[in-house]
Amino acid sequence: MSNKRDDLVAKYAVDIKEKFDEEPDMDLLSKVAIGLGPAIYNVDSSKVSGGDEKELETVKKNYLIKKLGMKDSPKLMEAIKSVMNTYGSSNKNKYRAVVYYILCKHFDKASIY
Hints:
By secondary structure, the chain is mostly helical. The protein has 5 helices and no strands. It has a single domain (2-112), classed as Recoverin, domain 1 (Orthogonal Bundle), CATH 1.10.238.120. Helix 4 crosses helix 5. It comes from marine sediment metagenome.
């Protein structure tokens, strides 16, 4: 099982390098992936639909507010939309682990992991 996760984490790392032009912190990326549990193996739940407002709300509520302990503010959705834009609207494979990782780094919340 962990080999499959390692493969996914490697794939996420490539996205972080190519789409976000940054060198991924592999330790944090692994922890984010582990934190998502079985969701990363499910085709549907492993990705975030950038055009789906409800889904973006879910990322905000379940991840930024519940998991990272952020206070709700317009900044949260701005950050999520910024990640979606950087990921590229034409890109259908916006991996949840990558989105969460980038948001985690953006808000400097790596210590939560």
